[in-house]
C-alpha cells in the first residue's frame, strides 16, 4: 500500500468538495468550489515508490455555484450532482463517433437551499438528497419529480444513505439526530407508491457505554459547531449494518469526549452496536469498499458474523482509517495528508484505489497491490440479509464496544496530533535551520527558537504558525484564509522595513514600550559631542525616530494572531524609510 497527495491543479486551487469513482472504470470524477465537474484517468505509475498517474480527461460545466456532491448510478450511465442554491442535475452518458460525452438529462428543483449530500437507490430509479433547508427529498429520476419530502430535521441535513435492500433510507443532521425511515408503500389508483415513514430517531444513548459507568443519557453526535459541511453516512453493500459518522461519546463522566463512528445492526437500529473510536478530530465521511473478501481467519473473536470480509474507510477532518469486519482495530491509518478538512472519500470498483478530497484544493490517492486487501469472495447469488438475522454481535443490556482499544486509540491520537502539527509545517529554504526528514518524506523544523531570534527568518516562523492555525480552522472559503495570510505577509514586510527584531512571543505592555523608548533616548543623548560630522548626529536621531515609530505601531495596532504569537505591526506606511541597522 502506498499513498499521498497528488500535486496537480485539480480545481484551480479551490476547495475540492466531493469525488466519486465510475463503477465500471478507473475514471475519477471530482467537483468543488470552481462550479465544474472534472474527469480524471488513474493509472499505475509503474514504480513501487511513485504515486499513481492522474491524467485530465474532460469537464462538465453547467452549475453556477459550488458543487457539494457527485455520485454515479450503479450502472455508470447516469451521474447526479448537487450544488449550492438547491440545484440537482442528472447527467447521462452518450456515445458518439468522437467518444463518450455527458449531457444534462434533467434538472431537479425542489430544494430551497444548498444540497450537501445525495444517494442513488440500487436500481437507479430513485435518489435521496439532503439540504441546508433541513429537508430530505426522494426523487423519481425517470419522471424528474419530487415523490416525498422528509422535513422532520431541525437543522441542516448533511448526510443521506439508501439501504441497498430498498427498505430504509437514512439521514444525518447537525441537529444531532440520525433518522431512519422505513418504506411503507401505499396504493393510489391501483398503483403502489413508495412512502417512507420515520421509524427511528437516534439522538441520545439510553444505556451506558461501559458496564462500570453510571447509566445516563448523553448525545451521540456532534452539534452544529462541527467544522465541516458534511456528515456522509453509508450502508454496507449487503445491507447488514449502517455506518454513521460525527459520533462523540464519553468513556466516563470525567473523561474527554471521544470522536467515533457508530455501527448500527440491521436487527436493532435503535442504538449503536459498536463504537469505532477515532482520532482527535471528528469523523466526517465513511465509505464501503464495493468488493467482498474471503475471511483470513486471523481474528476469531470478531464482532461480525459474516461469511466474508467487508472493508470500509472512515475519514476524520485530518486522517483516514481503514477497517474490516474481521478485526476491531484498523488495518491502516493515514494522517497528515492535507492542510485543510477532508470532504469526501471513494473506492474504485476493483478496490485498487482509494481517493479522498480536501478543502485545501488537492486530492490524495491510496493504491493497494494485488491481493493486498485479501482474496475476492465470489457471491453465488444476490446478497441479501433478512432483518431477523443479525450479523453484528450485540447484547440486550449494553452497547458492544471494543473497550480494550479505546485507551490505546486515545494515546495514539494524541501522539498523532503532535506529529501532524510538526509534519504540516511549511518550511521554506533557510541556511540556519536544522531539519530532519520524517518517515513520510516531509521535513520538520528542529529549532523554532533559532528562527524566532533571527530577523531574516521571522516571516518564515509566522508563516508556519499561520499555516498551522489554518489547519484547525473551519474553512468555509479558501479565499478568506488566503486573505489572512496575504495580510500577514504584508505586515511582516513592513516590520522588516522598520528593522525591528522582536524576540518576545507575548504582547508588549505599555510600560515595556516606554522603557525601551527611554533607553533609546538616553543612548542618543549620550552620543559624543565631537562626532566626525553632523551627518552622524542626524543618523542617530533617525534611528531613534524609527524605533519609536515601530514600537508605537505595535502598541496601538491590532494583533492578527492569538496572544501567544508574535505581535504584528499595524503602522501605516505613509513614507518608506531606508532600513538602518540599530547599534546594540
Distance from first to last alpha carbon = 57 Å
DSSP summary, beta strand count: 34
Low-pLDDT parts are 395-406, 421-486, 495-513, 523-533, 550-584
Gyration radius over CA: 29 Å
For the sheet with most strands, the description reads: 4 strands, antiparallel
Overall geometry comes to globular
Mean pLDDT: 76
Total helix count? 6
Helix share of residues? 10-25%
Strand percentage: 25-35%
SS class: alpha+beta
Strand order across the biggest sheet? 1-32-31-30
Layout of strands and helices, then pairs:
Layout: E1 2-6, E2 16-21, E3 27-32, E4 36-43, E5 53-61, E6 67-72, E7 78-83, E8 87-96, E9 99-109, E10 115-120, E11 126-131, E12 136-140, E13 145-150, E14 157-162, E15 168-173, E16 178-183, E17 186-188, E18 191-193, E19 196-202, E20 204-205, E21 218-219, E22 234-235, E23 241-250, E24 257-265, E25 274-277, E26 283-288, E27 311-316, E28 319-324, E29 332-335, E30 342-347, E31 353-358, E32 363-367, H1 406-423, E33 435-437, E34 443-445, H2 448-453, H3 458-472, H4 478-498, H5 510-525, H6 534-556
Antiparallel strand pairs: 1-32, 2-3, 3-4, 4-5, 6-7, 7-8, 8-9, 10-11, 11-12, 12-13, 14-15, 15-16, 16-19, 17-18, 20-21, 22-23, 23-24, 24-25, 26-27, 27-28, 28-29, 30-31, 31-32, 33-34
Helix pairs in contact: 3-4, 5-6
GO biological process, one term: DNA recombination
WD repeats: 60-101, 108-149, 150-181
Subcellular location: Nucleus
Amino acid at each position: 500500500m502506498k499513498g499521498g497527495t497528488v500535486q496537480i491543479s485539480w480545481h484551480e486551487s479551490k476547495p475540492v468538495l466531493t469525488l466519486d469513482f465510475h463503477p465500471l472504470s478507473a475514471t475519477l470524477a471530482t467537483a468543488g468550489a470552481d462550479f465544474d465537474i472534472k474527469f480524471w484517468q488513474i493509472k499505475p505509475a509503474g514504480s513501487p515508490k511513485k504515486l499513481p498517474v492522474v491524467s485530465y480527461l474532460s469537464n462538465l460545466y453547467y452549475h453556477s455555484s459550488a458543487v457539494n456532491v457527485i455520485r454515479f448510478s450503479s450502472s455508470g450511465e447516469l451521474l447526479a450532482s448537487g450544488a449550492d442554491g438547491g440545484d440537482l442535475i442528472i447527467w447521462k452518458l452518450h456515445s458518439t463517433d468522437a467518444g463518450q460525452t455527458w449531457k444534462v438529462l434533467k434538472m431537479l428543483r425542489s430544494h430551497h437551499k444548498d444540497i450537501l449530500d445525495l444517494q442513488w437507490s440500487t436500481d437507479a430509479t430513485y435518489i435521496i438528497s439532503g439540504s441546508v433547508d433541513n429537508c430530505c427529498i426522494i426523487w423519481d429520476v425517470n419522471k424528474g419529480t419530487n415523490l416525498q419530502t422528509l422535513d422532520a430535521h431541525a437543522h441542516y441535513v448533511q448526510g443521506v444513505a439508501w439501504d441497498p435492500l430498498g427498505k430504509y433510507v437514512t439521514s444525518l443532521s447537525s441537529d444531532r439526530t440520525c433518522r431512519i425511515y422505513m418504506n411503507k408503500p401505499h396504493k393510489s389508483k391501483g398503483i403502489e407508491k413508495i412512502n417512507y415513514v420515520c421509524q427511528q430517531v437516534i439522538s441520545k444513548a439510553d444505556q451506558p457505554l461501559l458496564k462500570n459507568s453510571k447509566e445516563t443519557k448523553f448525545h451521540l453526535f456532534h452539534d452544529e459547531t462541527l467544522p465541516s459541511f458534511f456528515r456522509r453516512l453509508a450502508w454496507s453493500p449487503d445491507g447488514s449494518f449502517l455506518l454513521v459518522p460525527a459520533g462523540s461519546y464519553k468513556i466516563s463522566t470525567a473523561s474527554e469526549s471521544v470522536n467515533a463512528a457508530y455501527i448500527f445492526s440491521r436487527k436493532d437500529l435503535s442504538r449503536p452496536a459498536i463504537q469505532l473510536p477515532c482520532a482527535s478530530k471528528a469523523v466526517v465521511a465513511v465509505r464501503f469498499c464495493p468488493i467482498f473478501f474471503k475471511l483470513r481467519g486471523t481474528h476469531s473473536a470478531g464482532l461480525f458474523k459474516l461469511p466474508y470480509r467487508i472493508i470500509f474507510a472512515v475519514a476524520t477532518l485530518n486522517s483516514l482509517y481503514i477497517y474490516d469486519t474481521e478485526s476491531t482495530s484498523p488495518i491502516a491509518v493515514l494522517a497528515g495528508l492535507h492542510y485543510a478538512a477532508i470532504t469526501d472519500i471513494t473506492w474504485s470498483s476493483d478496490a485498487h484505489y482509494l481517493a479522498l478530497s480536501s478543502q485545501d484544493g488537492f486530492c490524495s490517492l491510496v493504491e493497494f497491490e494485488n491481493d493486498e486487501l485479501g482474496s475476492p469472495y465470489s457471491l453465488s447469488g444476490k446478497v441479501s440479509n433478512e432483518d431477523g438475522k443479525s450479523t453484528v454481535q450485540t447484547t440486550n443490556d449494553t452497547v458492544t464496544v471494543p473497550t480494550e482499544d479505546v485507551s490505546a486509540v486515545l494515546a495514539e491520537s494524541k501522539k498523532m496530533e503532535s506529529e501532524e502539527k510538526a509534519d504540516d509545517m511549511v518550511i521554506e529554504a533557510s541556511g540556519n535551520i536544522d531539519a530532519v526528514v520524517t518517515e513520510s518524506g516531509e521535513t520538520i523544523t528542529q529549532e523554532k527558537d533559532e528562527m524566532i531570534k533571527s530577523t531574516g527568518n521571522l516571516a518564515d516562523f509566522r508563516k508556519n504558525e499561520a499555516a498551522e492555525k489554518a489547519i484547525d480552522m473551519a474553512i468555509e472559503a479558501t479565499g478568506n484564509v488566503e486573505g489572512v495570510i496575504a495580510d500577514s505577509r504584508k505586515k511582516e514586510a513592513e516590520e522588516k522595513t522598520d528593522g525591528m527584531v522582536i524576540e518576545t512571543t507575548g504582547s508588549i505592555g505599555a510600560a515595556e514600550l516606554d522603557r525601551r523608548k527611554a533607553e533609546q533616548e538616553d543612548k542618543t543623548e549620550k552620543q559624543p559631542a565631537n562626532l566626525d560630522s553632523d551627518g552622524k548626529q542626524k543618523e542617530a536621531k533617525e534611528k531613534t525616530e524609527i524605533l519609536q515609530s515601530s514600537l508605537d505601531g505595535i502598541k496601538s495596532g491590532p494583533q492578527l494572531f492569538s496572544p501567544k504569537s508574535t505581535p504584528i505591526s499595524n503602522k501605516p506606511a505613509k513614507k518608506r524609510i531606508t532600513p538602518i541597522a540599530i547599534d546594540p
